[in-house]
Structure to design on (202 residues):
């Protein structure tokens, strides 16, 4: 197995591809991290309470020379349960896409990031939305962008494939906000992550 962590990070296996959809909760996710990464990588993949707002504010500064990033928090949002080094690379991938796929007449990418709370059945989530004003996606691109080997000519899929993988390891979900996403309008990526209160002690 090879690992490379960074803005364009991805995780590959030499024998098999791991699936994204995990039908279990955060307690089992801890075991997935331990079994997959092993003790030498647990420092990078350890799940801890984390503030996604603090992470996003830091990234807004980090990308200040390349993009106009606004981070909005809709009321007080609980902390999430995450492996910050991995989750940060997901956020970086999404911002990198907004920069790469800005409109030709835009000197800088414009990204609105919002944080809120949501519920899916009996489970509660923190929802993080990344919305840009770039070239956007058509319906076919939106349906295929999370799948490795099914990218379009514009190359959307590699970073979003990784983003879906890591979000799945956090017992979360990721999707395209199709009500907003359209060609020449922009794209929206929505991530749901479990509350700390619904996550186990590690």
């Amino acid at each position: 197995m090879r690992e490379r962590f960074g803005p364009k990070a991805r995780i590959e296996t030499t024998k098999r591809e791991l699936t994204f959809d995990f039908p279990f909760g955060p307690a089992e996710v801890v075991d997935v991290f331990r079994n997959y990464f092993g003790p030498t990588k647990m420092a990078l993949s350890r799940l801890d309470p984390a503030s996604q707002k603090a992470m996003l504010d830091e990234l807004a500064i980090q990308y200040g020379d390349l993009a106009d990033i606004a981070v909005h928090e809709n009321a007080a949002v609980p902390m999430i349960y995450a492996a910050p080094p991995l989750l940060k690379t997901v956020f970086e991938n999404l911002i990198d896409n907004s920069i790469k796929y800005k409109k030709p007449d835009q000197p800088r990418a414009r990204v609105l990031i919002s944080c809120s709370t949501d519920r899916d059945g009996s489970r509660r989530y923190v929802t993080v939305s990344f919305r840009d004003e770039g070239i956007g996606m058509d319906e076919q691109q939106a349906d295929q962008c999370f799948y490795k080997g099914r990218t379009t000519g514009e190359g959307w899929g590699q970073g979003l494939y990784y983003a879906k993988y890591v979000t799945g390891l956090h017992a979360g979900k990721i999707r395209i906000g199709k009500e907003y996403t359209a060609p020449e309008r922009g794209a929206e990526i929505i991530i749901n992550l479990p509350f700390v209160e619904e996550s186990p002690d590690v």
Strands lie at 2-4, 10-12, 48-50, 67-73, 80-82, 109-120, 123-132, 173-176, 188-194. Confidence is low (pLDDT under 50) at residues 1-30, 39-44. Residues 20-196 form a domain with the Heat Shock Protein 90 fold (CATH 3.30.565.10). The chain has one domain: 20-196.
